[in-house]
Amino acid sequence: MNTLFVCLLASVFVVYGSEDNLQESKQQNTSCVNYCSNIVKPVLNETKCLSQFENTNKLMEDKFASQDKKIEQKLRDLSTATEEIMQQIKLQGKQIEQQMEHLHKTDEVKKQIPGPPYQQIGSKYYYIEESEEVNWFGAVNKCRAIGGHLVSFENSDEFYEITDKLQTNKDYWIGINDLAKQDEFTSISTGRRANYLMWQSGDPNNVDGNEHCGELHFNDRFKMIDDTCTKKQMFICEFRN
């Protein structure tokens, strides 16, 4: 009997002892889980944040890449548009230059086409005075006053084109003289030797040493003679281009 009681009591201690150990083990396990959870949870949170950051970064990179492509395309479009505008500006510039050149030529033509009292004879413009008689120096001034000079001929064509228009009963001053040097007739328009001379037979003769100005005199036809510069007669002006 006593032996049985002792055995039962021992069994109770064993059971209660086992329960205490089990409870302690559970507590230890719970503490371990909590500890591990406290350690691992921040890591997991950090990993999650890192993953979200990577996803966000990838989205931003894709967005920036898309924007870069759009910007590059806009820049290409802008460059193309700029080139087209520059081509248009160059074309308009050429058109303006052509228009300015045309206007300039028109102005030059207008300058070369004088109004009255000039008339076109051949390829040039002349004024033939048929009413007022002046001396040679007066004729020089009269021609200058209307933008010309006393005529001096370049060739035989000009000479005959003019003389065909003259009245045969009148004499006309022309723009040659040898006032600077005897027998060296120069053109008043150029200051150089006259290009074309058609002297009457026996002229220039400088009668009495006082004939230094050229005129057109009609005999059987108009020819050049030297005469006294103070003599009054008609004159012929050539428009100064």
UniProtKB/TrEMBL annotation:
Which domain of life does the protein's organism represent?
Answer: Eukaryota
Keywords tagged on the record: Signal
- SUPFAM superfamilies from the UniProt entry: C-type lectin-like
| Stretch forming the signal peptide | 1-17
The answer, when asked if Signal is one of the entry's keywords, is yes
InterPro entries xref list = C-type_lectin-like, C-type_lectin-like/link_sf, C-type_lectin/snaclec_domain, CTDL_fold
KW Ribosomal protein (keyword) present: no
Positions of the C-type lectin domain: 121-238
PANTHER family registered for this protein in UniProt: MANNOSE, PHOSPHOLIPASE, LECTIN RECEPTOR RELATED
Q: What is this protein called?
A: C-type lectin 37Da-like
From what organism does this protein derive?
Drosophila albomicans (Fruit fly)
